[in-house]
Design goal:
single chain; about 400 residues; alpha/beta; Rossmann fold; six-stranded parallel beta sheet; three-stranded antiparallel beta sheet; 17 helices
Length: about 400
């Protein structure tokens, strides 16, 4: 299997190599693609040290050449780097809005900056590896997958670890023989059904009780019981916005912490010894890139095996991407029919968010500023036409 990693110079990339090393995939070539030869060399060396005997790591600054013959192309490009993420997380706070890189105004800024660049890579992939899977993890993941689907013929989807992490927590309490239903968009989804595999026995009551005991759960137990569906953690911004709206403009963000960590990790990667690969593993854990183990590598494995596995992926569905359970195998991806109803209020949130994402992607693809304003005006984390106009005007000049 040849896997090309766009944005391969990320300090998280060694976590991908470690996850592949621990997987049941027997023979894989990982080609890390990056723009900075110096940074790519540092990260590539750390990846090579972390790699097991069945994982080969190479690097390239020529994406089109690297993609030739690829079986899968993993997009993890962060356009603008962590400095851009810092803007996404802090600028909205000047308007009293929550700053977040996937949802709300920050998510729109990210999409506006990211989608045109990713589409350049997607068109290269369409020429050099038309049969490859184009797997996206770059946020806002659903909007990126939708844009790629709308403008190319690539087989594409986005993968996120949020559904898998939530389910893994429930499996620790209720056992591994579970079937689940899930519906949502990127980072905003609901576990709507849970039962023993092969039975009609609902376990939602037990699941809600288990989730309520999680120490970091942001949701009131009575709220989840009333809805009879378990929301993903990001839904806290929709259900309890007053708790998370900043009281003043924020001077520090998650991106600030990640920039400091990135600098430390790059320095430590430079001094890694090939004789001690365990040192690479301990360093990688500091980044906490669990999405590779939880989501990315399992789907890579499933795509090249005969027996289908059930996974929760963001699949293009009409003009947006819908996160739902699917069957994944060498034969492709088959959407599994839902069997649990979605609560009315969750369906309402989902409808609004899908409309926002559809309008926003259309605005970015066509350059229609008015459509971008309309999109942000209905986004639940903005919800104000005047503020939406100011937000769009602040970024549109530099993006067109």
């Amino acid at each position: 299997m040849k896997v090309v990693v766009l944005g391969g110079s990320s300090v998280a990339s060694p976590a991908l190599v470690l996850a592949l090393t621990r997987s049941r995939i027997q023979d894989v070539e990982v080609v890390l693609v990056g723009r900075s030869a110096e940074k790519l060399g540092v990260v590539g060396r750390a990846c090579a040290i972390a790699a097991g005997p069945h994982v080969r790591v190479t690097t390239s600054t020529a994406p089109e050449q690297a993609m030739a013959g690829a079986d899968a192309i993993l997009n993890q490009v962060r356009v603008g780097g962590l400095a851009a993420r810092e803007f996404d997380e802090t600028y909205p706070t000047q308007f009293g809005l929550i700053g977040e890189e996937t949802l709300g105004a920050g998510g729109f800024f990210n999409a506006l900056r990211t989608i045109p660049v990713v589409l350049q890579y997607a068109r290269m992939a369409e020429r050099e590896a038309p049969d490859a899977w184009f797997i996206n993890v770059t946020n806002p993941a659903g909007m990126v997958a939708s844009a790629v689907h709308r403008t190319t013929k690539l087989k594409t989807f986005s993968v996120c670890d949020v559904p898998r992490t939530l389910l893994a927590g429930l499996q620790e309490t209720l056992g591994s023989d579970l079937e689940w239903d899930w519906l949502g968009v990127n980072h905003v989804g609901w576990l709507t059904g849970l039962r023993r595999r092969g039975t009609d026995q609902s376990l939602m009551g037990e699941a809600i009780d288990a989730a309520a005991r999680w120490p970091l759960s942001p949701f009131a137990v009575e709220d989840v019981r009333a809805m009879q569906a378990i929301p993903s953690p990001y839904i806290r911004y929709l259900l309890y916005p007053h708790r998370y709206r900043p009281q003043s403009s924020q001077s520090r963000s998650r991106a600030t912490d990640l920039k400091e960590l990135e600098a430390e990790l790059l320095q430590q990667y430079r001094t890694l010894s090939a004789a001690t690969p365990s040192s690479a593993a301990s360093l990688v854990q500091r980044r906490g890139a669990h999405w590779y183990d939880q989501a990315v590598v399992p789907v890579l494995d499933a795509l090249f095996r005969e027996n289908p596995e059930t996974m929760t992926l963001q699949i293009p569905d009409r003009d947006t991407a819908l996160e739902r359970p699917v069957q994944v195998s060498r034969s492709g991806i088959a959407v599994r029919p839902p069997w649990a109803p979605i609560p009315q209020d969750a369906a309402a949130w989902l409808g609004i968010l899908r409309t926002y994402e559809s309008l926003a992607v259309e605005a970015i693809l066509t350059g229609e500023r008015a459509k971008a304003i309309r999109a942000l005006a209905i986004n639940p984390m903005v919800g104000d036409w005047d503020i939406a106009r100011q937000l769009v005007e602040a970024v549109w000049r530099d993006s067109r």
